[in-house]
Design brief:
The protein is about 20% helix and about 20% strand. It contains eight helices and 13 strands. The strands form two sheets. The protein has a seven-stranded mixed β-sheet with strand order 6-5-4-3-2-1-13, covered by helices on one side. The chain has a six-stranded mixed β-sheet with strand order 7-8-9-10-11-12. The longest helix has 13 residues. About 45% of the residues are buried.
């Protein structure tokens, strides 16, 4: 018999770590999910912390077999001092009811509203999947922004494989530039390169870019993302001080190895990078000046 706290409680405490020297902490939650802690606030981007897709595709020709276990259960993440959550688009590994509903239920239990930022094109779907009223959702589009606490969140188009818009002309896929303190972090969402992308991002003076590297695989019926070489080149072209890869090591049928393309290309270009393990903490003190 042991009196040690359960691993989920330890991970909750780990995610609650705070710094007050102007720096920030970041954790990779798996796939495209990240938590960013600035002082006593935390933004969580694209969390996928359930087995929704594994169950959905279990008896199909595209099984979503997990490569890594869930780092932290959604209810425990909700207790990790989250102050805002975002989703970049409607795909379940970015807008996941199995993650969102337990988190929102916990906030409803506390009688608090957790700000939830999504593309305006998916406001109704986001409300349905999160189990909250649409009025609780903050919708963004290309070039629009919102502020919640210290975090300003700016919508930037993403092309998964193209810049798709709904009937109202609103972007269905977004990346976000997240600005707080002296920092500017770019989370691309799912995207390939598109004309004008570098020009859009350059003025933001990106300190840290979070970019997918799983590439394109039409034979697996997988919508396109940057591959490792493209992610390294984009980071270099937008002047990112450092780049962290994501969107791999989740499902066996759709992954990549940073050592194959991403790391060699970053090294060739002289682009600073950092490769994280799922759940690993990163400090902004590692970003080159």
């Amino acid at each position: 018999m042991t009196n040690e706290p359960p691993v989920q409680a330890l991970r909750m405490a780990y995610l609650r770590e705070q710094v007050y020297d102007g720096s920030f902490l970041l954790w990779w939650l798996g796939q495209s999910g990240f938590g960013i802690r600035y002082r006593d606030e935390m933004i969580v981007v694209d969390p996928y912390l359930s087995d929704c897709l594994t169950h959905k595709y279990a008896k199909t020709d595209k099984p979503h077999v997990r490569m890594k276990p869930i780092f932290i259960e959604p209810v425990w993440l909700a207790q990790s001092l989250i102050t805002v959550i975002t989703a970049s688009h409607h795909h379940t590994d970015h807008l996941d009811p199995g993650t969102l509903r337990p988190i929102m239920a916990k906030f409803q239990e506390w009688k608090h509203v957790l700000p939830f930022v999504v593309p305006e094109a998916w406001r109704s779907l986001a409300a349905e999947r999160a189990g909250v009223p649409a009025s609780n959702i903050i919708g963004l589009d290309d070039g629009t922004s919102t502020r919640t606490g210290s975090f300003e969140i700016v919508g930037v188009p993403a092309a998964h494989e193209a810049i798709d818009r709904d009937d109202a002309g609103q972007c269905q896929y977004l990346g976000y530039v997240i600005r707080f303190g002296k920092w500017s972090v770019y989370h691309s969402g799912d995207t390939v390169l598109y004309d004008g992308m570098v020009d859009r991002l350059g003025p933001f003076n990106i300190d840290l870019a979070l970019l997918p590297i799983n590439g394109r695989a039409p034979e697996r019926r997988v919508a396109g993302n940057l591959n490792g070489r493209e992610a390294a080149q984009l980071a270099k072209d937008i002047g990112a001080k450092l780049v962290i890869p994501c969107h791999y090591d989740m499902f066996e049928f759709n992954t990549a190895d940073p050592a194959d393309e991403f790391i060699p290309e970053c090294q060739r270009l002289g682009q600073p990078y950092r490769v994280l393990q799922q759940g690993e903490r990163f400090s902004s003190t590692e970003i080159p000046e």
